[in-house]
Specification:
The chain is an all-beta fold. It is built from no helices and 6 strands. It starts with 12 loop residues before the first strand and ends with a strand.
Length: about 100
């Protein structure tokens, strides 16, 4: 897709970062790999098929000296199966959590 075709309000930034997430109400922490993120959402890769509309709590920690951690409540907007037991999950940030 060309930049002219992209109608996003905020550009996506490439971010190859390990993240953790859990389903709201669950204590199980899952690992995933963030592919890109913007001010309003992110795309990550995981082994779990997460249904559209699912609420998650996401945590991103970075080793970069000026990067702050991100703790957010998100909602799944899109799920793409990319291989056996491998999914790309697009989520919208619904709110930020305190550290």
């Amino acid at each position: 897709m060309s930049e002219q075709d992209d109608k996003r309000a905020f550009p996506r930034n490439i971010a190859d970062i390990a993240i953790t997430y859990k389903h709201i109400g669950s204590t199980k922490i899952n690992e995933a790999s963030c592919i890109n993120l913007s001010a309003t959402g992110l795309l990550f890769r995981t082994h779990e098929a997460i249904a559209v509309g699912t609420a998650l709590s996401i945590n991103i920690q970075s080793d970069a000296p000026l990067a702050l951690p991100l703790h957010a409540l998100v909602e799944t907007k899109r799920l793409n199966k990319i291989a056996d037991n491998q999914y790309e999950v697009a989520v919208a940030i619904e709110g930020l959590k305190g550290v």
